[in-house]
Design goal:
The chain is of the alpha/beta class. It has helices at about 5-10, 70-80, 85, 115-135, 185-205, 245-260, 275-285, 305-315, 335-350; strands spanning about 35-40, 50, 65-70, 90-95, 100-110, 175-180, 210-215, 220-225, 235-240, 265-270, 290-295, 315-320.
Length: about 350
């Protein structure tokens, strides 16, 4: 849907709910672009393989973390890599099969006659054939239309209400990220390659990667991810830096806060200003304990990325989010900045 159509229908839309499955308004999904696509199995069943290896082994060693694919997993992998045979305008750049989902990078090289969603739909249809042939599909009685789905003549069927336990391989919809900034493609490729190790690390430290909702801190409710015991450390120090600081002053603040962290302080900040970002980045690089207050909320499937993941796995990070999750990139307001800094102050003083 383009922006003009979106604005035309906005007054009649229901309340917008956060969803990772929503397409970007105004983006041309038929034109040349590169996408990171994620698909999950219905019910998040681990049908594609088992996680094997050791987290302390890296590279191409057979002992490095990897997913040993089942017959169905191998069939799904073949179908994904063959996407160009069905859609010549599309090629697969990378693929990572996981036990209950896949991440794939697709390059739409030239304009397609159909929406990207039709490419994904065709892939789902072809892999569902393997799913049924290998005997994974539920019996016909399990796939019947539910009583709540009784329709009047001509009324469209709402498939989201179907009993999908488990007549279909895939859950409804898909998630996509659209390639943007410089260097992002390589970060995607590295992320896919590192996914098995990340999953194995999460399984070894489940408490550090479990999102908690309704956690009360200093009288406020937060969603939280990471080491909540950082809140009980005796010294918690707010990192707040004026936007007017010079580069030299920022360097001085970084050195000051790093010295305090080495003496045992937990640094607390939403990292809004340039100086705050520099302090928190330096502290993370030095493996110092941090409490980061996040403007965007967390979802049950939120997982930290990059350096945040490593800090979380080491028990050096706690992310607190006071508000609900949103998918859109929004410009943070002055009021929210002030509120986040006030929260940091409350957390340090509790």
């Amino acid at each position: 849907m383009n922006k003009e159509e979106f604005e035309k229908h906005r007054p009649y839309a229901k309340e917008k709910k956060p969803s990772m499955l929503r397409r970007r308004v105004g983006h041309d999904y038929e034109g040349r672009s590169i996408y990171l696509v994620t698909l999950t199995t219905e019910g998040r069943r681990p049908l594609f393989g088992t996680l094997e290896g050791r987290t302390d082994v890296e590279g191409n060693s057979p002992e490095a973390p990897h997913v040993a694919l089942t017959e169905l997993g191998e069939a799904v992998k073949r179908e994904w890599l063959d996407v160009g045979n069905y859609h010549p305008e599309v090629s697969s750049i990378a693929l990572q099969m996981m036990p209950d989902h896949l991440h794939g990078i697709l390059f739409v090289k030239s304009r397609m006659p159909q929406h990207l969603g039709q490419v994904i739909k065709g892939f789902k249809a072809s892999t569902n054939k393997h799913y049924r042939q290998l005997g994974y599909a539920a019996t016909p009685s399990q796939q019947r239309e539910q009583p709540s789905q009784q329709r009047k003549p001509g009324e469209k069927r709402d498939r989201s209400l179907d009993d999908r336990e488990h007549g279909m391989l895939w859950s409804i919809g898909y998630n996509d990220h659209i390639l943007g900034g410089k260097g992002e493609l390589q970060r995607w490729i590295d992320y896919l390659a590192d996914n098995p190790r990340r999953l194995m690390t999460k399984r070894q430290c489940p408490d550090l990667f479990r999102v908690r909702f309704g956690m009360t801190v200093a009288g406020r409710n937060y969603s939280a991810l990471g080491n909540r015991f950082l809140l009980s450390r005796p010294v918690r120090l707010q990192v707040q830096c004026s936007r007017r600081l010079s580069d030299e002053e920022i360097t001085e603040r970084v050195e000051h806060f790093l010295a305090e962290a080495r003496r045992g302080a937990v640094l607390v900040s939403p990292a809004i200003s340039k100086g705050e970002k520099a302090v928190m980045r330096a502290a993370m690089n030095a493996r110092m304990p941090l409490i980061f207050i996040e403007e965007n909320g967390l979802t049950p499937y939120t997982k930290p990325g990059g350096e945040f993941f490593e800090a979380c796995s080491q028990g050096k990070l706690l992310i607190l989010a006071p508000w609900e999750h949103h998918n859109e990139k929004i410009l943070i307001t002055r009021e929210k900045c002030l509120a986040l800094n006030q929260m940091a102050k409350e957390i340090c003083n509790q």
